Amino acid sequence: MKEWRKSGKFALISLMCAAALTGGCTSGSTPEETEDDTTNLTVVGFSEVGAESDWRVANTESMKATFTESNGYELLFDDAKQKQENQIAAIRNFILQEVNYIVVDPVVEDGWEGVLQEAKDADIPVIVVDRMVKTDEDLFTAWVGSDFYEEGQKATVWLENYLEEQGRVHERIDILHVQGTEGSSAQIGRTKSLLEAIEVHGSWRLIGSVQGEFTQAKTYEVVRDVLETGSIPDVIYCENDNSMLGALQALDEKNISHGVDGRVIVISFDASKPGLEECKAGRINLDVECNPDHGPRVEAIIRQIEAGETPEKYCYVEETCFEPQELTQEFIDSRGY
Ligand code: AHR
Predict the structure, then answer these.
(1) Which of the listed residues 181, 270, 288, 317 should we mutate to test ligand 1's pocket, taking the one with most ligand atoms within 8 A of CB?
(2) CB of 55 within 8 A of CB of 243?
């Protein structure tokens, strides 16, 4: 790791200690910042997926709020606009700039070996956040994020119980599946859980898998097209809140009721503010949490590395899920995202 750029904080502390040891620092005096202090910041290059969802915006805010100059960092932020090639170019750029750490939230799991090997050759630690990369484990230092498969299981177990409570266990249940970005960990895990549950429940039937790309606009279009055919699903399984908002838009346009007292059961993921608002209003039935507040978690990993410790390779964030009856406005307002 390069030694010429140390954290501003660490540099300042070293300066104070050195001054105290040589008797050059009088009690109560504050060492003045020199121009060098800014070049002593720990430089973090962060390649973000994009700005496709409220979750993503919250994630970006968390990173930006954590990696500030006052915390001892210089953040080089790159928005990849949901394209892996942009992320690869950004990482190469970070390597050229000799950053201290590379943080990547990979849009998809495959295709990272080459560029991560380049980072390794340049001796720059890589921290993967939120979604996973499918590579040799030696190519990154640590990962922190959600267990997307478990999130999906929370949703399918909830559905199983809900249908039982409603006395609909033997009824045929038509499910419309709105997938997120194909090949992303969030899509892979949540989809796997749904497909496994459909295998197990003979009465559950997948009437369609449509690509919503985690966005409201795309999901609105694809769900509207399904509804145009006259087919009305019993359940819409939306792989994030923004997709759910697009699905509700399409349902509302057709005057098809949904949620607690409605015809269509709606399940969503993220538990972002807009998602929880819909849930509290009973317009959707379940919102499974996916926590975007990764800035402090990534920073904790960097601190461990700086301290010469070895961080855990994989760190899963604890998450929950929400039904309408348990939500209050106070609770929603108290959340940071
Ligand atoms: O990777 C996390 C997922 O990506 C979130 O569910 C979604 O909202 C985001 O775009």
Answers:
(1) 270
(2) no
Nearest CA to ligand 1 atom 10: 53
Q: What is the C-alpha separation between 162 and 103, in angstroms, rounded?
A: 40
pTM for this predicted structure: 0.89
Contact 39, 5 (CB under 8 A): yes
Report, in angstroms and rounded to the nearest whole number, the Rg of the chain calculated over CA atoms: 23
pLDDT at 36 (0 to 100):
53
Handedness of CA 269, 273, 274, 280 (dihedral sign): positive
Whether residue 53 has its Cβ less than 6 Å from ligand 1: yes
**pLDDT, tens digit, for every residue of 256-310?**
999 999 999 999 999 999 999 999 999 999 999 999 999 999 999 999 999 999 9
| Residues of the chain above pLDDT 90, percent | 88
Which residues, including other chains, have CB under 8 Å from residue 273's CB and lie 6 or more apart?
Answer: 54, 332, 335, 337
* Mean pLDDT computed over every residue of the chain: 91
Average pLDDT over residues 306-321: 98
The answer to whether the beta carbons of residues 124 and 102 sit under 8 Å apart is: yes
